[in-house]
Design a protein that fits this description.
Chain A is mainly alpha-helical. Chain A is 60% helix and 6% strand. Chain C is an alpha+beta fold and 337 residues long. The relative contact order of chain C is 0.08. Classes of the chains: A mainly alpha (489), B mainly alpha (305), C alpha+beta (337).
Chain lengths: 489, 305, 337
């Protein structure tokens, strides 16, 4: 060992012993360092969400230092000339300040907003992976429920965050949210008045309360849920795909220290790096271009952020059913698309593990994942359900499709009202067929890998060995599947 | 290289034949639907009483102002304010004669030989003045192929000189002077304010265009101040019109200045991704940020199941 | 009757789909699934010898440092240029990311370990937990009484804990009232009152109540003028449109967006009637027919405000709205139609 290495060794020993004398956590630390992570890439989607959340906290603290949740109307006299002399709320003015007057303010605002979009996107992709590989089965159904709760909160949190700015676009969104709250049968008006502190646009305590929810209550709950979620994952150990040596009762993968820790930290830097690159180079939510919100103003082509897009699609698709009996409006129209639809989607997601248990009779514990093709009916059902939600999501943007492609908007709405029911059925049968065909052909569709690798045996010779998960016996005991070119058997 | 190509062409199809056939049928049906979809403007909009056009009255003389107006326009352009600047177009007997020739060959079939209009097809052009003629012709919105077609911006059929000729001819039939706008006299903040109140509902806040029931609303990135002034005072096609009391000359100048600004908005945040809001933002989230990260984790992790 | 029978048979058929399959045993001890595979052990440890990778990592760390100092420089000099700030910060983080990942895959030992998952449900321990809890209740005889009293106390506790939430919200009183009542003058967003002679056919005006609260939802009005042959109001409203001037709430009765699209045709036979459209979900209303809905999801027509012209020629409200403006709710006043 060189002198440098000896010194480093000494320092490390000193540091560890200092900690042990006070905390005595060696057993736990050893366990943590030995902890095994299966290596499939799709297992890291949840980490992308986790790291985006960390970026959100960091950038959010910065923004909270400058944001002011006031609804009192002020006249703008700041550096942005197009809004000079314009009347706006104090909240909007504070965000203009962040964007134009605070050093790195606009960067942190944009990184924060991109991170919020990425947070929900990575959760959705992670959810898709969970459903398509059957990872929600016992014992992980509890983890799955916690995850769904986090998804709901993340969507609400994002909506609350960009509504704090009180610009024209988000103000229109808040008015719609108010109408959705009002549409809850019987108690809707009380609920809306409760949240807004009165009729829209609400009392002067609405924005401060929304800020309280956004910077304290929701992040706290999400952080607690993340802790529970990760604790459960660690307790049960991560699931894994079947493969050589991988069984239900073991975990095969890379230990935390040193390789996985480095890769994971690398992923954290990658998430933060991409967010900062996008946050600096690609504009998001240029609120100075939208102008301040007033209830008597609106603009064409107003859209919510992408994770609310499914709701605007539902609100636009729904025919104008509004049932009233006498003086009572039983179901105001926004209820269908704004309340019933999301409740139904989340209801199906929550019920999924229970429904699968009931329909298959399988109450066993599962730690091995399925490849999607191994469960054609589940994969097809999930694909059909996803396509139903995704189509409604795309309909939400159909006015821009009209603008680009000159297809009648009215025609599109009529078409999609039927198509959102027909296309998922087609998707079901297509997906089931594809799964079955993939199973039969035994091929990996993305890479045509037949499961054969080149191995150097104990005798130093190269041979071709079949290590695909479909084979029955471990590879070392099998005959080689072929000869290596240039070598005799 | 060729080996790889051969392998690609010969690898086993993993979508079974009936599934492929089904896919072809579905995609073909969707494509046909796209073609069959009604053109904007004719779908969804109710139509009023529709007299069948009997064509222009035969044997009409060049300037037959005594012929009755057969199809009145539902709205005519407002005049500029009393002291407001107007745009004057060149005028001469030669221009008028040229205009007459052009009119007879390109416009009279719908708008009538005596500019009296055709019921159910095209409005009369009497009393429209120079503004609408200049607007519709320099933006290529007229001549229309079909009367029910939406008049969208197009390559103009006529050059400037021919347009002036047509203006000279048609202006004889009455109508107000054409308005004009000078962006340099406008206040851009006031322009944003007025634009938001009166225009953004259809044209989108940074004039990127949009849609309404049964019509497409154009973006204004190619609009010139002259076109803006003319459009505001006349309300082309389905657009409302605004008189000098509602949008005075200063407001008009300011709106023109703002609209020109929207060609290059203040994108302090970087690439503006078309300035239409959350749709491209969502696309960037999934197809740039998340895609880059999925690529990253595929590099980090194993790919075999 | 026939329909009902068919419905019942469909529901019965659905029931068979959702009836539970026979429950398979919950095997924690399935021997075939258990333990490590005695024949094949995937553990391995590979100590790399990759000085070029190490050099690359070191280089990347230097690159990250350059970007990092670049960020500091940009922050101090340019201060607010998001592109340079984001580019340098992002560059630093991405360089660090690549360094860590290369280190994690090429520099440090690559290992595959096998760990066993322990049983989650340990029968004995679970039994002991149940027994311990139940032991805590030894000697308690009046369980029914205690359970009942506990239930009542629990309900009261939840109610008492939840009740203060009501402090957050005001009463619903006045929900039907708007700022518009007889005599209120219509002004524009700069406060200038509208003369009836200001209103022209084919144009669109936004009006607010004079001396009112423009930021309230009920304030905004859309005012248009239509020629008499285009006005077909229901009979109670014949006097609501003096000189053909019509006023409607600007707030869409679907989801409270401001209605800001107005189409007025230049030539009606080829392009349809005058109409208001809401930009949010494209509910479309006809001002000439009392705000009747012709397209879109709104459940009510657009509320109309009766107008009058005062002696000085100014437009004033001739009364309040006869139905509630804004989105529908349980007790919304829906109006005559």
């Amino acid at each position: 060992m060189s002198r440098l290495e000896r010194k480093a060794d000494q320092k490390l020993r000193h540091f560890v012993r200092w900690n042990e004398q006070r905390v005595g956590a060696a057993t736990g630390i050893k366990m943590a360092m030995r902890y095994v992570f299966p290596d499939h890439w799709s297992f890291m989607l949840g980490e992308i969400a986790l790291y985006s959340f960390m970026v959100l906290i960091g950038t959010g603290i910065f923004l909270a230092a400058f944001y002011s949740p006031g609804d009192s109307q002020v006249i703008y006299h700041g550096p942005y000339t197009l809004l000079r002399g314009e009347q706006m709320s104090e909240a909007y003015r504070s965000v203009l300040d962040i964007s134009f007057s605070v050093s790195a303010g606009l960067l942190f605002r944009q990184v924060h907003h991109w991170a919020a979009n990425l947070f929900v996107a990575s959760i959705v992709l992670h959810l898709i992976r969970i459903v398509f590989t059957g990872a929600y089965r016992k014992p992980r159904d509890l983890t799955y429920y916690v995850g769904l709760l986090m998804l709901m909160l993340a969507v609400l949190e994002g909506f609350a965050g960009y509504s704090l700015v009180d610009d024209l676009l988000s103000g229109m969104g808040l008015a719609i949210a108010y109408s959705v709250a009002m549409s809850v049968p019987f108690i809707g008006a009380q609920l809306a008045y409760l949240i807004w502190g009165g009729p829209f646009p609400g009392s002067s305590s609405f924005l401060p309360r929304l800020e309280l929810f956004h910077i304290l209550i929701a992040p706290m709950i999400i952080a607690i849920l993340i802790t529970v979620h990760l604790a459960l994952v660690m307790r049960q150990h991560h699931s894994q795909f079947p493969g050589p040596g991988r069984r239900e009762r073991n975990v095969v993968g890379t230990p935390m220290w040193p390789a996985y820790a480095l890769r994971s930290i690398g992923l954290l830097f990658a998430v933060a790096g991409i967010l900062f690159l996008v946050g600096g180079l690609i504009q998001i939510n240029p609120i100075w271009e939208w102008g301040p919100y007033h209830p008597y103003l609106s603009e064409n082509g107003a859209q919510p952020d992408w994770y609310i897009g499914w709701l605007i699609g539902a609100l636009r698709l729904m025919p104008n059913y509004e049932f009233a009996i006498g003086n009572h409006t039983i179901i105001p129209n926004p209820f269908w698309g704004g309340v019933l639809f999301p409740m139904f989607v989340f209801g199906v997601l929550f019920m999924w593990p229970w429904a699968e248990r009931r329909l298959t009779g399988d109450h066993r514990r599962h730690d091995l994942l399925d490849r999607p093709r191994d469960r054609p009916v589940r994969t097809a059902l999930a694909a059909a359900f996803l396509s139903w939600v995704a189509l409604i999501f795309f309909v939400g943007a159909s006015d821009r499709v009209f603008y680009r492609l000159q297809i009648s908007y009215v025609g599109q709405i009529h078409f999609w009202r039927i198509a959102i029911w027909v296309i998922p059925v087609i998707v079901f049968f297509l997906t089931r067929g594809v799964c079955r065909s993939l199973q039969r052909s035994g091929s990996h569709p993305l890479r045509a890998w037949q499961g054969v690798v080149l191995q150097r045996g104990a005798d130093g010779e190269l041979r071709l060995v079949d290590v695909s998960p479909d084979r029955d016996t471990p590879p070392d005991t099998e005959e080689p599947v072929g000869t290596v070119p240039g070598q005799e058997a | 290289m060729t080996r790889a190509l051969r392998w690609w062409l010969r690898r086993p199809a993993w979508i079974p034949r009936p599934v492929r056939a089904g896919l072809a049928v579905v995609l073909g049906a969707l494509a046909l639907l796209g073609f069959a979809a009604p053109a904007p403007g004719s779908g969804g909009a109710g139509v009023g009483p529709n007299g069948v056009g009997t064509g222009p009255s035969s044997g009409a003389t060049a300037v037959a102002r005594s012929s009755p107006i057969r199809a009145q326009a539902t709205k005519l352009p407002f005049p500029p304010g009393a002291n407001d600047p107007t745009k004057s177009f060149p005028d001469s007997p030669q221009l008028r004669a040229q205009g007459f020739d052009l009119y007879e060959s390109s416009c009279a079939s719908c708008h009538g030989v005596a500019l009296q209009g055709t019921p159910g097809t095209a409005p009369s052009l009497r009393d429209v003045g120079a503004g609408p003629v200049d607007f519709y012709l320099s933006t290529g919105r007229m001549p229309l192929e079909q009367p029910r077609e939406e008049p969208n911006r197009n390559r103009p059929l006529f050059n400037r000189q021919q347009i002036d000729a047509l203006i000279a001819y048609i202006s004889q039939f009455g109508g107000p002077a054409a308005p004009t706008a000078d962006p340099s006299k406008g206040d851009i903040a006031y322009g944003l304010h007025e634009f938001t109140l009166n225009c953004a509902g259809c044209h989108q806040i940074v004039a990127r265009g949009g849609m309404s029931w049964g019509l497409q609303v154009p973006n204004l990135q190619e609009a010139t101040p002259q076109e803006i002034a003319e459009a505001v005072r006349m309300g082309p096609y389905l657009m409302p019109r605004f008189d000098a009391k509602t949008i005075d000359q200063h407001a008009l100048d300011s709106i023109a200045r703002y609209v020109l600004w929207t060609r290059k908005p203040a994108d302090a945040g970087g690439w503006g991704i078309y300035n239409i809001g959350p749709i491209p933002e969502g696309l960037v989230t999934w197809w740039i940020a998340l895609a880059a990260l999925v690529l990253t984790i595929r590099l980090i992790g194993e790919r075999t199941a | 009757m026939n329909f009902l029978a068919r419905l019942v048979s469909i529901l019965l058929a659905l029931r068979t789909v959702f009836r539970a399959r026979p429950r398979q045993p919950e095997d924690e001890d399935d021997a075939a699934q258990n333990g490590a595979d005695a024949e094949y052990d995937p553990s391995e440890r590979e100590v790399p010898n990759n000085p070029s990778a190490e050099r690359l990592v070191a280089l990347l760390l230097i690159v990250a440092a350059v970007f990092g100092f670049g960020f500091l420089a940009v922050y101090i000099i340019l201060q607010t240029n998001a592109q340079w700030l984001g580019g340098t910060m992002g560059g630093m983080l991405v360089a660090l990311a690549v360094a860590c990942i290369i280190a994690g895959k090429k520099v440090v030992p690559q290992e595959t370990h096998v760990e066993s998952r322990d049983r989650l449900l340990k029968e004995e321990e679970a039994e002991q937990v149940v027994e311990m809890i139940e032991e805590g209740g030894q000697g308690v005889s009046r369980r029914g009484l205690l359970a009942g009293a506990g239930g009542v106390a629990g309900a009261a506790f939840v109610a008492a804990a939840a009740a203060p939430v009501a402090s957050l919200g005001p009463r619903l009183g006045g929900i039907h009232k708007t700022q518009w009542h007889r005599g209120v003058r219509l002004v524009d967003d700069q406060g200038r009152p509208y003369l009836a002679s200001d209103i022209e056919i084919g144009s669109m005006y936004t009006a607010l109540p004079e001396h009112g609260e423009p930021e309230h939802l009920d304030a905004g009005l859309l005012v248009v003028k239509l020629p008499p042959d285009k006005i077909h109001l229901p009979s109670p409203r014949q006097s609501w449109a003096p000189q053909g001037i019509l006023a409607y709430s600007k707030i869409c009765p679907h989801a409270a967006c401001a209605i800001s699209l107005y189409r007025y045709p230049t030539f009606q036979p080829t392009s349809g009637p005058p109409a208001f459209t809401c930009p949010c979900h494209y509910s479309t209303f006809l001002p000439g027919e009392g705000g009747r809905l012709v397209f879109g999801p709104a459940g009510r027509s657009l509320p109309q405000l009766p107008l009058m012209v005062d002696s000085a020629g100014y437009l004033r409200a001739a009364g309040g709205f006869h139905e509630d403006i804004g989105p529908s709710w349980w007790n919304v006043h829906r109006g005559e139609s």
